[in-house]
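so im writing up the methods section and need the Permease record in one place, dumping it here so i stop losing it
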Amino acid sequence: MPSVSILTRSVLKEVLRWYGAGVALFMALQMTDILSSTVDKLLTYHPPLSKAAFAFLTYLPTIVNRTLVMAVAFAILLAFSRLQQDSELKAISASGVRPLSLIWPLTLPFALVAGLAFLNADRLVPAGLANWERAWYQIYNTTPPPPRQEKYTYAPPGALYYAGRVVNDTGGNVAQLEGIMVQRGNETITASTGSWDTARQTWTLQGAWIVRPGENPRQLATPLVLPQRDTLTPPPVDARQAPTAELRATLARGTLSPTDRRDYQFQLATRYADPLTAIVFALAAGVLGLLIRNRAAAFAGVVVFIVCFYALWTTVPGLARAGAMNPMLAAWLPNLLFLAVAGVLAWRLR
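--- predicted struct ---
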């Protein structure tokens, strides 16, 4: 009987050879996709080569993370199809080695891949996405929009302050307000625009309307100044652009709106779930590869594998943000389903 360690090394060598090819293939495909979707903008705005190159470099960490994971299924399915085609797996089975025993060693190299993907997703990917956004503002020769907060609400005892939008153009102590409503006791005050001075702790409303029970609404001809003692905090950054530590810290402060909180919870969970997809793919693709008999079926398996995972992966963020699914479950659902598929296929091969 051949040594299991020798067989394992042989299979790993074959898989890693295909993994290198898969990384090159998926990197090329994704770069082509990015170029095809942005070439019209580059031709329209004619940015310097340095600006265009910088924009694509900032997106590289995102492409790398996707490639590291997608290439796993490609490598294992193609490697196992080659082993099946050359009857090597049959020879291994005939020698008394259970084919399933070849699956677990596959998790070792791809655990390293998962670790690399986690480190990349922790800081490089968020920073890259933020720089990608800024790079395109430079290409368009425009300035990024000022920080803004939607649907601001503050409810001290006996009052309610609401603004549909808070915009801080200068980053100082004064912000602009839009869509304002203030309730104090039986009095309701509304205004289209106003300003918030956090140094003076006041809201100044322009053209305010005042409504009281039993009285006709009346509009003030002069600005109305109201006390407002809340603090003006920067709006939360896009969760995809926040490092993992910042996601945790922001969630711990408890200042997020329900929608933003779900988004942050989902993004925090994906920082761990997405890198571990490399290990999940190794198990699921390994078991599926033992059932595939030719290379055509292997290519079809790669397509079905990635399309099914991608459909789940792109659907669950919207469900989590809308509150239709628990953010933690949504982040882990693709991995859990593929682990279940691997378990069913392994049961068939037992």
